[in-house]
Write a structure and sequence with these properties.
Protein name: AFP-like domain-containing protein
Helix content: over 70%
Strand content: under 5%
InterPro entries: AFP_Neu5c_C_sf
Number of strands: 0
Organism: marine sediment metagenome
Number of helices: 1
């Protein structure tokens, strides 16, 4: 797997985690 492809996947994963965290925080509030 090319390093460039890994970077794109990593960014997508990080963005998904950020969205999930925001949703969790909204539910906690």
């Amino acid at each position: 797997i090319p390093k460039f492809h890994d970077k794109i996947l990593g960014k997508k994963v990080k963005n998904l985690i950020k969205k999930d965290e925001l949703i969790l925080w909204k539910h906690l509030e």
